[in-house]
Amino acid sequence: xxxxxxxxxxxxxxxxxxxxxxxxxxxxxxxxxxxxxxxxxxxxxxxxxxxxxxxxxxxxxxxxxxxxxxxxxxxxxxxxxxxxxxxxxxxxxxxxxxxxxxxxxxxxxxxxxxxxxxxxxxxxxxxxxxxxxxxxxxxxxxxxxxxxxxxxxxxxxxxxxxxxxxxxxxxxxxxxxxxxxxxxxxxxxxxxxxxxxxxxxxxxxxxxxxxxxxxxxxxxxxxxxxxxxxxxxxxxxxxxxxxxxxxxxxxxxxxxxxxxxxxxxxxxxxxxxxxxxxxxxxxxxxxxxxxxxxxxxxxxxxxxxxxxxxxxxxxxxxxxxxxxxxxxxxxx
Length: 332
Description:
The protein has 16 helices and 10 strands. It is α/β, with parallel strands linked by helices. It folds into 2 domains: 203 residues, D-Maltodextrin-Binding Protein, domain 2, CATH 3.40.190.10; 94 residues, 3-Layer(aba) Sandwich (D-Maltodextrin-Binding Protein, domain 2), CATH 3.40.190.10. The strands form 2 sheets. It has a 5-stranded mixed β-sheet with strand order 2-1-3-10-4, sandwiched between helices.
């Protein structure tokens, strides 16, 4: 039998150990999470900052961001398991709960704390007044969706009944609303950024009011997942929330120009000046949450908005489908 020197045997054993440890580290470093975001918008700047600044990577996460246009489609993707985490309005989790889901959807981290839409007028008058909307054609959002409910909430606050005082159009798919307005449909429309700024640059009208400012603080866009995924992946969800909070603090402490530069790869076709002005609008009105915690006052405001829209069957207490554990641990 051929003799193998002890030092060669030692090297082989050492190599085996190194390969084993490397494989373990590789598995840890490749923990992957797929996010389904309801739309691609500057409204979600902290999400893109978390990816671009390496905050997800610092937590050992590989995050794949997929855009699933519309709250209904995003929730369907989450329930079907094609995405792990959804970034969508908190109202969608309430709808799932109201349907008696066996595996409810749990909100665990807030991204935005105001509505992200702006009232855009095709033929804006010099001094805007909400009364000008009466008898106009309003290109609305999907019934039961957060933009539409928050919009109706604000209109009612200003004495406008959307069902009687407007010609309300709601048969246009979420992804096609901007193009429908561009083609001539409607006198007014709700637009997210950067679309509102793009239309202003193109001379299609102007922003005359902010639904975010008018409707107050609420958990407008939240990261959520199924209870089963949460139970099985607590460590991953905690790491995800930690990374998000790092991004929130970064966004809060940097200028609109700096934020726009970081998120530019996610908006390659957008003029950098438009990107900056869009971020600035959201920062100025306090849209971006500075921590991932959903507080009770915000939650109750959401319930009021849903109730006014006739979409709330019964009051859903905060702790029923909100798990604050991860957000609180991320913000000691």
